[in-house]
């Protein structure tokens, strides 16, 4: 059974997947900047929803560290955010796709974070879902093309357990 938290966040995953597909780089070496920009804004908002609303609400309901895979989710968020700071090359888009495929499964799977959040929230789930849905966008810094931004992305990938080699040619 999907409660309101899980339903909304899974809907947002599907929306973001669609935006990433529209951004391109599936069959060609072209990334469409406007579409990628919409994806980037949406994904940063989604991460913000989880980090600023969902997880703090769960810690008020119980120990968020009891959530399955919560440490990995935080590390993934840091790696994703670091990738979103650098220019969107086909390699960056491919790395995002690979991470999001695994990341979304941790959240959506049977017994995953979203299901556990629904359980912990109990009667507060609808209120939390309303807060998630009505949250504003986040302030987004411009893309950074400095070498240290690329190195920071590689380090964040490594900390999250992904190969820094995902950024081949970057």
Describe this structure in words.
This protein has seven helices and no strands. The longest helix is centred in the N-terminal third of the chain and has 29 residues, at 33-61. By secondary structure, it is mostly helical. The termini are far apart. Helix 1 packs antiparallel against helix 4 (90-108), helix 1 (4-23) packs antiparallel against helix 5 (113-121) and helix 1 (4-23) runs parallel beside helix 6 (125-134). The model has no long low-confidence stretch (mean pLDDT 90). 32% of the residues are buried.
Based on the model shown, name its key terms.
170 residues, mainly alpha, 7 helices, 67% helix
Give a quick summary of the entry.
The chain is mainly alpha-helical and 170 residues long. Helix content is 67%, strand content 0%.
Multimer state: single chain
* Sheet with most strands: none
Supply the helix-strand structural class: mainly alpha
Strand runs, count: 0
Binned, the helix content reads 55-70%
Helix and strand layout, with pairings?
Elements: H1 4-23, H2 33-61, H3 70-83, H4 90-108, H5 113-121, H6 125-134, H7 147-159
Helix pairs in contact: 1-2, 1-4, 1-5, 1-6, 3-4, 3-7
């Amino acid at each position: 059974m999907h409660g309101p938290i899980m339903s909304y966040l899974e809907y947002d995953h599907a929306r973001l997947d669609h935006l990433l597909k529209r951004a391109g780089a599936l069959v060609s070496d072209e990334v469409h900047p406007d579409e990628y920009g919409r994806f980037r804004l949406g994904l940063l908002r989604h991460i913000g929803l989880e980090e600023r609303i969902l997880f703090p609400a769960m810690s008020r309901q119980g120990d968020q560290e009891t959530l399955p895979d919560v440490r990995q989710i935080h590390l993934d968020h840091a790696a994703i955010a670091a990738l979103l700071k650098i220019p969107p090359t086909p390699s960056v888009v491919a790395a995002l796709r690979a991470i999001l495929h695994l990341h979304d499964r941790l959240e959506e799977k049977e017994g995953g974070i979203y299901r556990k959040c629904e359980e912990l929230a109990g009667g507060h789930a609808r209120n939390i879902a309303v807060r998630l849905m009505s949250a504003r966008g986040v302030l987004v810094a411009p893309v950074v093309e400095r070498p240290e931004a690329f190195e920071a992305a590689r380090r964040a990938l490594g900390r999250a357990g992904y190969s820094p080699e995902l950024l081949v040619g970057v």
